[in-house]
């Protein structure tokens, strides 16, 4: 007990002495014993569970916090670890001393973390702080992390190589109803954030101890002039003609002005991303052609894993209205991401899985989002990425009946978009003219193959949509008939159109094969329709050959049930 009291008095005197010492008064973090004293006093308060001890130490710790925050702009040492230790004290004993930790936490984010997010020690301590206090922060301060998610993404982007496990644990705290939509584009552009931060470091010096906001304020006018000069003359301001000594002699990279928007610290809602412009596309392509840094490589691997966490939480916890609002943004950004082949493949795979999973859970979203879906179908031939997105949307339209039986008007409009896509293909002979393309390049061959694959999905979607909404059957027969009569070089499209025309002559079989695999909510499943994915577990009587009803004599078919269902 005396040893404890002696230790208590020693650490408390250390705090009091620090407040009177002129050498540390303006820079408390410069005294290494100060953080140790705060930590020991915190531990003693928790061990003794004494409100009296907490009340005695709180005024001293609070003074240190205020002085440390006030000295941040002049401090030559890191204050992050000291302030995090004090914040932990506030969270543990705030109710005892009636201290609301919310203003202190926000002050730390704005004044300290914005300057020290690039410090690897502070970054690791920050993530551990968020993980340890995850439940408490989400319960008592639910808007804190969502408000500062851009700043936390900068921490993640700069330190992702070392702290991947901690990042994955802390990341769910960034999601809330207020940040769910705006977080997605920022997360998707995490590699571009790395490029922006590396450019700021190259142009303005180390990021540790400097506020990005002040760097932006000082360099933005000059960088904007550099960009304008290159846009109009083809050279940068620093070029000074053709006698540039080296590429590194340029103090400002012309790409920087378009990156400034992503260097913000707080969530201010959804804003137009500047790299959607053609100029930004060109600049990003130049960045992709340069050698990747280790930090960028790490973020290219980390971002798909963060998207996995984001989408799993979205499907599990987020309400359907927010998910519905996310889908148009997701579709518009599908073809606008960092142009690395492996990264693009991993991200596109996850985006498509989320889109299809969402439509599987909420088929009515197809009707609600018919306008953005039709816009994406209209862009099907613009690029391979947009072709793949249009292809998957065609599948979803056909599989879920354009939103369900209660959305006939929307289904008709979607059907008309599919018709337009099909007729555009036929009229422009995109798949025809085999003789003229006999000597075409591999690129042309790939393009025709991709378009043939898209047309197979369009033809299937037209047939399935007409099967679901039978008033569309006459128009579907006309559309498929034109494909069957046209000179299409790809036999797959022609064969599929002919097969569907044959199926439409027997509505019962057509409904079983092309009808929805499951009924829409509130709509009974049609007689004779089964889920063919469960075909191997069905009995013979479940197979919808009711067309044999009221037929006398042996069945007229010459196949066995084993020809239909695969053996296990």
Automatic annotation (TrEMBL):
Coiled-coil blocks: none
Q: Which InterPro entries match?
A: AP5Z1_ARM, ARM-type_fold, TPR_AP5Z1_C
Q: What transmembrane ranges does the database entry give?
A: none
**Pfam families in the cross-refs:** SPG48 (PF14764), TPR_AP5Z1_C (PF25154)
AP-5 complex subunit zeta-1 ARM repeats domain location: 30-154
All copies of the AP-5 complex subunit zeta-1 C-terminal TPR domain together span 288-519
Instruction: Report the protein name in the record.
Output: AP-5 complex subunit zeta-1
- Species: Vicia faba (Broad bean)
């Amino acid at each position: 007990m005396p040893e404890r009291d002696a230790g208590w008095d020693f650490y408390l005197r250390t705090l009091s002495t620090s407040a009177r010492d002129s050498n540390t008064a303006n820079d408390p973090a410069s005294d290494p014993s100060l953080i140790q004293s705060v930590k020991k006093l915190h531990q003693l308060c928790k061990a003794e569970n004494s409100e009296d001890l907490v009340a005695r130490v709180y005024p001293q710790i609070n003074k240190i916090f205020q002085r440390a925050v006030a000295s941040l702009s002049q401090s030559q040492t890191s204050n992050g670890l000291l302030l995090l230790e004090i914040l932990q004290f506030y969270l543990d004993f705030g109710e005892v001393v009636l201290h609301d930790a919310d203003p202190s936490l926000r002050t730390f984010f704005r004044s300290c973390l914005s300057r020290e997010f690039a410090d690897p020690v502070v970054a690791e301590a920050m993530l551990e702080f968020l993980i340890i206090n995850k439940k408490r922060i989400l319960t008592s301060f639910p808007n804190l992390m969502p408000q500062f998610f851009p700043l936390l993404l900068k921490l993640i982007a700069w330190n992702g190589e070392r702290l991947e496990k901690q990042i994955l644990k802390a990341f769910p705290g960034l999601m809330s109803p207020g940040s769910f939509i705006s977080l997605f584009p920022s997360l998707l552009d995490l590699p571009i954030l790395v490029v922006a931060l590396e450019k700021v470091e190259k142009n303005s010096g180390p990021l540790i101890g400097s506020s990005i906001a002040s760097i932006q304020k000082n360099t933005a006018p000059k960088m904007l002039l550099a960009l304008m000069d290159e846009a109009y003359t083809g050279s940068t301001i620093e070029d000074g003609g053709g006698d540039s000594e080296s590429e590194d002699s340029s103090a400002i990279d012309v790409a920087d002005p378009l990156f400034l928007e992503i260097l913000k610290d707080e969530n201010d809602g959804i804003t137009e991303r500047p790299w959607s412009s053609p100029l930004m596309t060109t600049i990003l392509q130049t960045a992709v052609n340069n050698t990747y840094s280790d930090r960028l490589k790490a973020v290219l691997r980390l971002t798909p894993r963060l998207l996995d966490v984001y989408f799993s939480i979205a499907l599990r916890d987020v309400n359907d209205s927010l998910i519905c609002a996310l889908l148009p943004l997701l579709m518009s950004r599908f073809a606008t991401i960092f142009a690395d082949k492996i990264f693009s493949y991993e991200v596109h795979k996850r985006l498509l899985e989320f889109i299809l999973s969402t439509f599987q859970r909420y088929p009515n979203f197809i009707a609600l989002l018919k306008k953005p879906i039709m816009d994406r179908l209209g862009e099907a031939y613009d690029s391979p990425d947009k072709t793949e997105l249009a292809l998957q949307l065609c599948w979803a339209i056909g599989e879920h009946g354009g939103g369900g039986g209660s959305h006939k008007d929307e289904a008709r409009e979607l059907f008309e978009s599919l018709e337009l896509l099909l007729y555009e293909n036929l009229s422009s002979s995109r798949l025809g003219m085999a003789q003229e393309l006999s000597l075409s390049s591999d690129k042309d061959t790939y393009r025709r193959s991709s378009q043939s694959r898209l047309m197979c999905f369009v033809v299937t979607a037209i047939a399935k949509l007409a099967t679901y909404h039978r008033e569309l059957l006459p128009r579907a027969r006309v559309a498929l008939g034109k494909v069957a009569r046209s000179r299409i070089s790809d036999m797959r499209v022609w064969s599929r159109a002919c097969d569907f025309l044959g199926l439409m002559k027997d509505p019962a079989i057509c409904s079983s094969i092309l009808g929805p695999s499951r009924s829409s909510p509130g709509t009974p499943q049609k007689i004779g329709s089964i889920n063919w994915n469960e075909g191997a577990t069905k009995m013979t009587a479940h197979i919808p050959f009711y067309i044999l009803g009221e037929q006398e004599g042996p069945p007229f078919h010459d196949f066995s049930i084993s020809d239909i269902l695969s053996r296990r």
